[in-house]
Fold:
Amino acid sequence: MNAALVLLRREIVRFVRQPSRVIATLGTAALLWLLLAGGLGRAMAPGMGGEGAGYAGVLLPGMISLVALFGSVFASISLITDRHE
Structure:
């Protein structure tokens, strides 16, 4: 468990020290969310997904999940590359 925590801390430090990665990760997700929610939001029926939740409200949890998923994939690739070198 300690090894996993050390690797997690190292990846977080590496991520935060590279502002371009932070901006690319958050910016891409925000841009996709704005484009998809703005463009497809009008095509979807109002009230989809619950009380007053439009398409943007339904899309947001999925986008957050995908950001976490791709972040973990890139961290794993980074770990594999470090081990290879």
Remarks:
- The mean pLDDT is 79.
- The two ends are 24 Å apart (CA to CA).
- The CA atoms of residues 12 and 18 lie 10 Å apart.
